[in-house]
Design a protein that fits this description.
Strands 8-7-6-5-9 form a 5-stranded antiparallel sheet, with no helix packed on it. About 40% of the residues lie in helices and about 10% in strands. It has about 400 residues and is α+β, with helices and mostly antiparallel strands. The longest helix is centred in the first third of the chain and has 22 residues, at about 70-90. It has 3 domains: about 1-50, Molybdopterin biosynthesis moea protein, domain 2 (Alpha-Beta Complex); about 70-315, Orthogonal Bundle (Hypothetical protein af1432); about 325-405, SH3 type barrels (Roll).
Length: about 400
């Protein structure tokens, strides 16, 4: 199977993975032959990509860290809370907005309790995962805030396991990540979805969202959720003190259990969330740029370690992040196979940059009898990410990456 941009999908292709609505209902089941009507419906539900069978790698299915049931439930609960919050934040009168928010916090206890249960289930689900499998969300930027929040929680909790966080810290990390961008609901969509660089005024508005989210979290969360609230507030602070909203600093070290409240330092668990947030932001399509290829994500995280992100946490994160996740299209750039292209079929935990690749095209884009090479053993073979492919071959163009805000 392979993941295709929706504009490359054609009638007659066969769906390789079940698609769900924003509320968790099945839209189309795996194995359905796509028609123009089905494709139109998928677009209306905000999908930018779907998985289709390709005849050469239909047995290659990228693993998912979260169960589909939990993913759909959590997405539904996030959607319910965020959509209600968005309507409140659209009220111009600040006094009325505050009153609505307080009333919502009182009436939304069942909804928020469901989200708290999701946080517990995410911690339990992720406990059995060894590696991240890449971004699962296939939707467009209209559902970015809650899709992104779920991905950040998943990545953050998996990283938290590697950092040996306590069970209570893990739960607080999951809850804080799920809610970390709730403050973005105060920001006009015209700014959030702007396809070009932000002005200084617009950037100043964007930088209000951690404090706004913290205020909202104070109304929604319980007294014991102090760590989760500060994750919401601190996820854009930087190691060198140039972050926002308070210009806190980091030590580029990680000591589990250290709180650092009131010392001018970033909360260590918030530093974990920051790494997960940046990773997920890089891996998503945004209005101002395309998602970064997996290998470029690794390079970018390394470049941001030290000044922006906690260096020690980034190093630990890279032990769970495959450079080329299963299902990634790659091209051979060295050895006698130079120019051949294929699909990653297996990842080796001890050699995350050297997967097993199923070669399916020659340098001219012609199909070859598929064969697999294990680059962890055949060290002379170097690979790089290939652009998105059409079913007939790897010949589609990749849009130029545009610089933009992180997160």
């Amino acid at each position: 199977m392979q993941k295709l941009p929706i504009e490359s999908v054609r009638p007659g292709m066969v769906l390789a993975k079940t698609l769900y609505s924003e509320r968790g209902d099945v839209l189309l089941s795996r194995g359905v032959t796509l028609t123009e009507l089905y494709i139109s419906g998928v677009v209306q539900h905000g999908y930018q990509f779907i998985w289709v069978q390709d005849g050469v790698a239909d047995d290659v299915e990228p693993p998912e860290v979260l169960s589909p049931k939990l993913r759909n439930l959590a997405n539904k609960h996030l959607h319910d809370i965020f959509s209600t919050m968005e309507s409140i934040c659209s009220v111009q009168d600040l006094g009325q907005q505050r009153e609505l928010l307080i009333n919502f916090a009182r009436t939304a206890r069942p909804q928020f309790a469901a989200l708290c249960e999701d946080a517990e289930q995410i911690v339990e689900n992720v406990a059995y995962a060894e590696l991240l499998s890449g971004m699962v969300s296939l939707r467009n930027h209209d559902s970015y805030t809650y899709d992104h929040s779920l991905e950040v929680a998943t990545a953050g909790v998996l990283l938290g396991h590697r950092l040996f966080l306590s069970p209570q810290e893990m739960y607080q990390l999951a809850l804080g990540c799920l809610c970390h961008d709730i403050g973005k609901l105060i920001i006009p969509k015209a700014i959030l979805n702007k396809p070009s660089n932000l002005s200084r005024e617009e950037l100043a508005i964007i930088r209000q969202h951690p404090e706004a989210g913290y205020t909202t979290a104070q109304h929604l969360m319980g007294a014991s959720d102090i760590i989760a609230r500060h994750i919401v507030r601190q996820h854009h602070e930087r190691q060198d003190g140039t972050g926002y909203p308070r210009g806190l600093r980091g030590s580029n070290r990680f000591i589990a259990g250290k709180r650092a409240f009131g010392q001018g330092l970033i909360l260590p668990v918030a530093e974990v969330a920051a790494v997960a947030d940046v990773y997920c932001a890089l891996a998503f399509d945004r209005p101002y740029r395309k998602a970064f290829p997996p290998d470029q994500i690794v390079t970018t995280l390394l470049s941001m370690a030290g000044k922006h992100l906690n260096r020690e946490i980034v190093a630990r994160f890279l032990t769970i992040l495959p450079v080329y996740p299963i299902g990634t299209r790659v091209v051979v750039i060295s050895s006698k196979l130079r120019g051949y292209r294929g699909i990653v079929t297996d990842v080796h935990p001890a050699h995350l940059a050297r997967p097993t690749v199923r070669i399916v095209f020659d340098p001219q884009g012609k199909s070859v009898a598929p064969f697999e090479v294990d680059t962890s053993r055949e060290r002379e073979i170097e690979i790089a990410t290939a652009p998105y492919a059409r079913l007939a071959g790897f010949d589609s163009e990749t849009a130029e990456l545009m610089p933009g805000a992180w997160g």
